[in-house]
UniProtKB/TrEMBL annotation:
The keyword RNA-binding does not apply. Belongs to the short-chain dehydrogenases/reductases (SDR) family. InterPro entries: NAD(P)-bd_dom_sf, Sc_DH/Rdtase_CS, SDR_DHRS6-like, SDR_fam. The keyword Coiled coil does not apply. It comes from the Bacteria. CDD domains: SDR_c. This is NAD(P)-dependent dehydrogenase (Short-subunit alcohol dehydrogenase family). GO terms for molecular function: oxidoreductase activity. PROSITE patterns: ADH_SHORT. Keywords: Oxidoreductase.
Length: 254
């Protein structure tokens, strides 16, 4: 079950956190994993680990904000059975402390970056006779979270792009879903704690952990297992869905 044998997979942001966990698991399941990363060193580390475990993988240095570069890399890879649009960046702030630069940066990476990869991948999938897209949304896509103005905007767009792609390409045999995690303990979380709460990192870590009714943050591997199901042939009847994986954050926080 859940074999990805010889599937060509493209994972953005596979050098860290959730993207790395998905890359490692998909390679274990037999996929050829192509990692698209801003951070070449981190991507090379993931690839080295996959090769060491007997899997197949290659890293491509690429900023997903640049459509020309995305096109060049996808053409080099040549085939895309599964696209995991995972790369994303964080921002903490309400409307009034979100500058134009902050807003543009979050939009460029989280929204336009995902669009760029879809723009290039979908025609390739159509030509190949089908494919699977998995987008990384967030609980912030559909729940009001304090001080996440720009981030929520970007993840709301991920959810609605998911629905649009799923609807428009039903007849092209392309499935498209998204995953909405609550807090997952990755460098992404450590980074924004260090940047935004340098004086009370431990206190904020505990607070963020407790905001999941289950009492902790998620693990990247837990997200990877849901990603595997959704990208596998076993999920052939699943499209246009947003899957919360959130320790009860969305429905039990009352
Ligand atoms: N960690 C969480 O709590 C959490 C919760 C919900 C959703 N998410 C989403 O999951 C995804 C992965 O998060 P993570 O916690 O693993 O983050 P992370 O920071 O650990 O990893 C993200 C990776 O994306 C890469 N990246 C960033 N910008 C890029 C660009 N322009 N082009 C190419 N690569 C780029 C980074 O180099 C990094 O390796 C993000 O979209 C994030 O919004 C995370």
């Amino acid at each position: 079950m859940f074999s990805l044998k010889d599937k060509s997979v493209i994972i953005t942001g596979g050098g860290s956190g959730i993207g790395r966990a998905i890359s490692l698991l998909f390679a274990k399941q037999g996929a050829f994993v192509n990692i698209i990363e801003l951070n070449q060193v981190a991507a090379d580390e993931t690839v080295a680990q996959i090769l060491q475990e007997g899997g197949q993988a290659k890293a491509y240095a690429c900023n997903i904000v640049n459509q020309g570069k995305v096109l060049e890399v996808f053409q080099q890879i040549g085939r895309v059975d599964i696209l995991v649009n995972n790369a994303g960046i964080a921002h903490v702030g309400n409307l009034e402390n979100t500058s134009e630069e902050d807003f543009d940066r979050i939009y460029q990476v989280n929204v336009k970056g995902a669009y760029n990869c879809l723009f290039v991948a979908i025609p390739m999938m159509k030509e190949q006779g089908g494919g699977v897209v998995l987008n990384m949304a967030s609980v912030a896509s559909s729940v009001g979270i304090s001080d996440r103005f720009a981030y929520s905007m970007s993840k709301g767009a991920i959810l609605t792009m998911t629905l649009s792609i799923a609807k428009d390409y039903l007849k092209s045999n392309i499935r498209c879903n998204c995953i909405s995690p609550a807090r997952v303990h990755t460098p992404f979380v450590d980074g924004f704690l260090a940047k935004n709460y340098p004086d009370n990192i431990d206190e904020m870590f505990d607070k963020l952990s407790a905001s999941q009714p289950i009492g902790r943050m998620g693990k990247p591997e837990e997200i990877a297992h849901l990603a595997l199901y959704l990208c596998s042939d076993e999920a052939g009847f699943v499209t246009g869905c947003d899957y919360p994986i959130d320790g009860g954050f969305t429905r039990l926080n009352n």
